[in-house]
Amino acid sequence: MAWVYLLVAGLFECGWAIGLKYTDGFTKPVPSLLTVLAMAISFWLLSVAMKTIPVGTAYAVWTGIGAVGVAILGMVLFNESRDILRIFCLLLIVSGIVGLKLVSSSQGIS
Question: What is the pTM assigned to this prediction?
Fold first, then answer.
């Protein structure tokens, strides 16, 4: 269950990172409130996941999900570069996330 919490925490990280773009420097109340709420949920779920998952693994996976998710959303929402080398680098991050999950599972951590 900790991995589910961590995945959802990573998704909320994507939400607050993208939300920052819409806050316009925290001058827009509704996007600002939603962004802060997403931050709080993301951090809380990360802390719950860390009860079981080692801190280094949990934090690396959380930031990896956020980095890849925000980069993809940047491509979709803000027409950011879709260069093949950029996509390859994102795939490297995803392979690192999967690798951390596999290594953690093989050590008996759930």
Answer: 0.87
Range of the domain at 62: 2-106
Structurally, the chain folds into a number of domains equal to 1
pLDDT tens-digit map of 50-98: 999 999 999 999 999 999 999 999 999 999 999 999 999 999 999 999 9
- Residues 86, 89, 95, 98, CA torsion sign: negative
Report the C-alpha gap between 39 and 14 in whole angstroms: 9
The answer to whether the CB of 54 falls within 8 A of the CB of 104 is yes
Contact residues for 39 (Cβ-Cβ < 8 A; gap 6+): 12, 16
Distance CA 92, CA 42 (A): 23
